[in-house]
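Long-time lurker. I teach an intro course on protein structure, and each term I like to show students one example going from raw sequence to a predicted 3D structure in token notation. This year I'd like something fresh instead of my usual example. Would anyone be willing to generate the tokens for the chain below so I can use it in lecture? Attribution to the forum is fine with me.
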Amino acid sequence: MENNDTINLLKECDAGTKMAVVSIDEILEKTKDAKLKKLLADSKEEHRTLGNEIHTLLVQHGSEYKEPSPMAKGMSWLKTNVKMGLDESDATVADLITDGCDMGIKTLNKYLNQYTKASSTSKGLCKKLISIEEKLSKDLRSYL
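-- Reply from a regular --
Happy to contribute to a lecture. Here you go:
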């Protein structure tokens, strides 16, 4: 049971890091403010690094990685393009990424509570990802 919970939690975290990287990539080129662009690029790298660590653990557990759901990716792409089409400001960039962070925090906490028998290492990685999302959301507030 612990092994399944561990693998499931790691897969959800893996999908979360990938979703964050894709979302930031999607919006980075539309960002005008240099400080905001750096903040997003740094967060993207932090997500990518953590994602690599999570992927390594999945391989060690004999499991494959998990991609974000096509529905989630599609909805994110649609929302981003509609909102940016109406207002290409850095405030819109911050709003979109903040929404993504909030959704990630909510979803990751749900999985953390669902997979109670997951290893302490996988729970720690999940909490680290939640912390990265919370920090990014907080750092973006001045751009809203």
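Some talking points for your students: The CA atoms of residues 27 and 93 lie 7 Å apart. The mean pLDDT is 93.
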